[in-house]
């Protein structure tokens, strides 16, 4: 009976515990809100914006962002002022403490994901509207803006 219990602990329970601990955030990580990546390395930006809209009727716009490892998706915030719409997309970067305890390892999984960030816009004025997606490109977190035009009719 002890050999069965020992087998269960060494073959199942111990590896499961190690896997769970490896995937959890160690104490001391902080989360920093940053503009989301629209461009990641050689992966190009992608968006979806209708070319026409009507005054007072909501339209849906989308932009693709990349995340993974120590980066988690965040919020999408949109604001419309006249014929200008700005869509800010964010992510959260987990950062280890500046002075970790000795013999402490802070790692991140090597995974890569993408998602469509969706916003709904409503224009109150007719004319040519500008839709700006505001994010970043990586490497380097340099600002990256995608701008599209929408013909808004009465």
Summarize the structure.
By secondary structure, this protein is mainly beta. It has one helix spanning 2-23; strands at 30-35, 37-40, 47-48, 52-54, 59-67, 71-81, 84-95, 113-121, 127-138, 142-153. A hairpin with a 2-residue loop joins strand 6 (71-81) and strand 7.
Helix and strand arrangement:
Layout: H1 2-23, E1 30-35, E2 37-40, E3 47-48, E4 52-54, E5 59-67, E6 71-81, E7 84-95, E8 113-121, E9 127-138, E10 142-153
Parallel strand pairs: 2-9, 4-10, 7-9
Antiparallel strand pairs: 1-7, 3-5, 5-8, 6-7, 9-10
Describe this structure as you would to a colleague:
With 154 residues, the chain is mostly beta strands. It is elongated, with a radius of gyration of 22 Å. The chain has one domain: Immunoglobulin-like (Sandwich), CATH 2.60.40. It is built from 1 helix and 10 strands.
């Amino acid at each position: 009976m002890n050999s069965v219990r020992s087998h269960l602990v060494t073959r199942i329970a111990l590896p499961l515990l190690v896997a769970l601990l490896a995937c959890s955030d160690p104490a001391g990580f902080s989360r920093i809100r940053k503009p989301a990546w629209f461009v990641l390395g050689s992966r190009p930006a992608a968006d979806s914006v209708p070319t026409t809209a009507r005054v007072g009727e909501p339209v849906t716009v989308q932009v693709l962002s990349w995340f993974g490892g120590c980066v988690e998706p965040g919020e999408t915030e949109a604001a419309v002022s006249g014929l200008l719409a700005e869509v800010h997309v964010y992510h959260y970067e987990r950062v280890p403490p500046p002075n970790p305890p000795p013999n402490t390892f802070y790692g991140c999984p090597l995974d890569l994901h993408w998602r469509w960030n969706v916003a709904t816009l409503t224009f109150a004025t007719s004319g040519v509207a500008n839709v700006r997606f505001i994010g970043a490109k990586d490497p380097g977190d340099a600002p990256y803006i995608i701008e599209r035009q929408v013909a808004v009719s009465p």
